[in-house]
UniProtKB/TrEMBL annotation:
InterPro entries: MetI-like (IPR000515), MetI-like_sf (IPR035906). This is ABC transporter permease. It is a multi-pass membrane protein. CDD domains: TM_PBP2. Residues 66-256 form the ABC transmembrane type-1 domain. The chain crosses the membrane at residues 64-91, 103-125, 137-155, 193-216, 237-256. Belongs to the binding-protein-dependent transport system permease family. Pfam families: BPD_transp_1 (PF00528). It comes from Ectopseudomonas mendocina. Keywords: Cell inner membrane, Cell membrane, Membrane, Transmembrane, Transmembrane helix, Transport. It comes from the Bacteria.
Amino acid sequence: MSHVEKRTTVLHKAVVYSLLLVLLMPLLATLLYSISTSWSATILPSGFTFKWYVELWGDARFLAAFGRSLLVCFTALALSLFLILPLLFVINYHFPKLDGVMNVLILLPFAVPPVVSSVGLMELFAGDPLPIIGTPWIMIGCYFTIALPFMYRAISNNLQAINLRDLMDAAHLLGASTWRAAFMVVLPNLRKGLMVSVFLSFSFLFGEFVFANLLVGTRYETLQVYLFNMRQGSGHFTSALVISYFIFVLLMTWAANRLNKDKA
């Protein structure tokens, strides 16, 4: 490697590491504040404690909100997979020309702002014949529409990458039926696309606030609504909540990557 190339490499690394440091600084400051006893007029905290984390994870209201968020997110994702996988298989294998139409349709949830959608949903589902405002069912339906574009696009790209028609033709030549080939041959090849779509959607849904606050609020308090309701409390406590949220998402991502490598 020449001297010029070494200097260029060092410069590129310096830019990347500097950008990474800038992005991590707010998170590091939040972490430091969450374990400090007090931090006001000094550069560094006057002391350190895990009191706020103990208080947070001992709070029954927080644990209930955390569990509700997990329940709603995983139910919406399971529903999305159950409906999207067969749809994608049929479109890509039997009706590939419909893919362009679906690419337009799946973007429709983003065409209307969440606040406007929430007002319409409140008008539609506040009373008979389907009064589900304030229940987890309205959240599951909303989260399904939010996850749909992420999951559809990621799985569709994966299907195109594995050459679906050739795989199916090979399976048919070996005597497999269409649906047996789909489950035994195609589905295992979609593992990476499925994991990417599920965890990308989960990270987005787990932090969703607008629909949760407007459609259910404290009647079915999720984690983000809980964080909003606790904003007037101790800053150390809310910082501990934010860091706990980040660590949980980080662990979920790490576990998905580890599982993906183990099965590769």
